[in-house]
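Troubleshooting entry. Yesterday's outputs looked truncated, so today I'm pasting the complete records for two proteins to confirm everything comes through intact. If either block looks cut off, that's the bug. Protein one:
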Amino acid sequence: MSSKLISGDNDFFANLVVEVVQVVKMTNARGEVKYPIKGINILKAHGKSARDSFLMNGYALNTGRAAQGMPLRVAPAKIACLDFNLQKTKMQLGVQVLVTDPRELEKIRQREADMTKERIEKLLKAGANVVLTTKGIDDMALKANQCVCC
């Protein structure tokens, strides 16, 4: 609280800190009170004022939208958490395909795109309207307007 940056807003931040610590307060079966400070996270938003700080009671992700046209809020959100990408599936390294007819090559490329479309369709059919992925997202996946991808 003695920082040069926030010293002018001591009261504001003191109240915010007390409010946050009260939210994570836990009482065990023996009546002992604990404050798991590691349960508190600070997310920084560049370009905002320090006075814009607030308590988000819940879980916040510091991420962005994959495309500008996507909504900022989705309610009720049905979130799909993926550990695979939504990009065109490509052959693995070391796989060699000999093609003598150029039309066959186009069929292979089309099948790669279809596999991604099938994944997206399954997500939408499951009811997901927000997609969080640790991998990449193809432009084709972003054009599936029914979901927000991050």
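Protein two, checking that the full record survives here as well:
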Amino acid sequence: MHDDLDRLPGLLSHHAAALLAGLEDRPAAVVDRPPPPRRPLPAPTGLDGALAEFTERWEPGLSGSAGPRYLGFVTGGVTPAALAGDWLTGVLDQNPTSRLDSSAPALEDETTGWLAEILGLPSHTGMLVSGATMSNATGLAIAREWLGERAGISVADDGVGALGEITVFSAAPHASVHKALSLLGIGRKRLRTVPALPGREAADVTALDEALTALDGRPAIVVANAGTVNTVDFDDLGAISALRDRHPFWLHVDAAFGAFAALSPAHAGLVAALDQADSVCVDLHKWLNVPYDSAVQFTRRRDLQLRVFRNDAPYLGAPGDVPADLTPENSRRFRALPAWFTLRAYGRDGHRAVVERNIAQAHRLGALLETTPGWRLLAPVRLNVVCFAHETRSPDEIIRRASPEVFVTPTTLWGSPGLRAAFSNWRTSDDDVERAHRALLQ
């Protein structure tokens, strides 16, 4: 191992630099190549041998998900500064679970403070988690504790069974919300779907008002969206927040990537009322373009967050000032460092340029498809996702034939099968949009 350590900078930097240089030409997706067969652990070969085997057996099957024409899911790329921060994260290997041994938690505090500043969340504090799934689960766990506070109990101490019936409302919840409700013991069936506005994924606020009225004063949880995955639709956060004048409910907003609309003056109005939410989910490995995995959970009630996740472990430090007392994880990666680097390097203006360029590119692809015979949009292009279909070709056929030039993901919108192209990579150019369109037509 010591020999490998001495040679590591040359070996790794050469190989990683070659991968980085070839990223734009790497297949966007590898859909027809079977993975290598699994085999027993072989005899040791040292770093040289491991790197050679990885290059031969595994590297060809890995997608160009950090590249400019990977338009599947909502996957960001990695800015150069974020990549530098990620390399340093691995080298330093900090576990920011306690304030006793390093300044890593303080850097996390600064990073989440910067994010709150650019996203318009002055009333919130934030903690780093692994992704939108865990961010939504964390926010809903705090909401569950709030329900307990209203009933004069602590769910963290007495269990979810002490609460009795729990009601959650949402118009178009992400799959991770259902998973979080299952994980938290609330239950998937506790979620009641609120009618959406015609031709929209946004909640009908009048219908939500009526549903809350029917609870006759019983507290509830409302999950609103700031950017749905299919059509990037936004609930009217201001109108929903105003309902709290008449009804008691916790407002959790899933703004996994839509929160970054705040960076674009033309679209910031979509999230103008985001600070009124009680908890907010924001992904960083999407539109902030930092490496997986990285997200933030913001909340206005850190006291309840502490009640849910506290460790009661004196060896970690004074209770209430321990990062591990505020997230589901104790040991975790120093996720804040790549985000700190990209925010410090490019600032609000640099990331605003990425957001606005991606929005323009989505509108460009939408316009190209809309004027191409045989293709149709399943919904208007609102922000950075294009939802579309072909009259005769199936989504699976299109994905298979368009890859490896471009990768898009299948979906279903209002009962119609279709495809999604999500623009959230800083590398994507206008030429890539034209190449993606040609690949879809082939």
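Both blocks look complete. Sanity check on protein two: The chain has a mean pLDDT of 96.
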